[in-house]
Design goal:
The protein is mainly β. The chain has 2 helices and 24 strands.
């Protein structure tokens, strides 16, 4: 990995910076609307001053905000960096991981799993064989997807949640921390509990 900038100056960005550096890359600066000066020893600059040759990682936890920023960067001709994958992660050679995605420490991604663009696969998450993860998904720390799970675009799987094999989660779904999902979940639902049930729709 070469030189990149991070859009979003936050604690989440610090984790991504560590990953980039462990992969032999370098974070040059941050961009963060409404902030100026520096963060963690690096300058915070405006998007207009970023050379188009510099690739980006959107370091924002919110899926919707990450999608908005990614679209803005693309409109400016700025390309998303290749996936930033912590060296401690275990990734099958047959897995596919999209640009702008961040794979954090201790993650396991097994055979023929497909991860979309601008996703967060957070600390210790497990993605088993032939799962399909759409763009702008966040799998929180120590969440588990069993085999052949589908997670739609913009969905968020909470910390420690488990999704049983073969389940399909629609787009823009929130799975609460610690939930166990045993059945398909429709788009825009908030689910929680063991087994998980729909609490409401967004």
């Amino acid at each position: 990995m070469g030189e990149v900038f991070l859009y979003g100056a936050s604690g989440h960005a610090l984790v991504i910076r560590d990953i980039v550096e462990r992969c032999g890359g370098r974070v040059v600066c941050f961009v963060d609307d409404g902030k100026a000066g520096e963060y963690a020893g690096l300058p915070i600059v405006t998007l207009e001053t970023i050379p188009q040759s510099l690739q980006a990682i959107v370091s924002i936890g919110s899926n919707a905000a990450r999608a908005t920023v990614a679209a803005r960067l693309a409109a400016c001709g700025i390309v998303a960096a290749p996936a930033a994958i912590d060296p401690s992660a275990v990734i099958s050679p047959s897995a596919s991981i999209g640009c702008g995605t961040v794979v954090m420490a201790g993650v396991i991604i097994n055979a023929r799993a497909t991860i979309g663009e601008h996703c967060i696969i957070n600390t210790g998450a497990s993605v088993d064989h032939e799962c399909f993860i759409g763009d702008f998904v966040h799998l929180s720390p120590h969440s588990t997807l069993c085999g052949n799970v589908t997670v739609g675009e913009g969905s968020w799987v909470g910390a420690g949640a488990t999704v049983i094999q073969g389940v399909t989660i629609g787009s823009n779904v929130t799975v609460a921390a610690g939930a166990v999902v045993t059945r398909d979940v429709p788009a825009n639902a908030l689910v929680a509990g063991i087994p998980a049930k729909v609490l409401r729709f967004k």
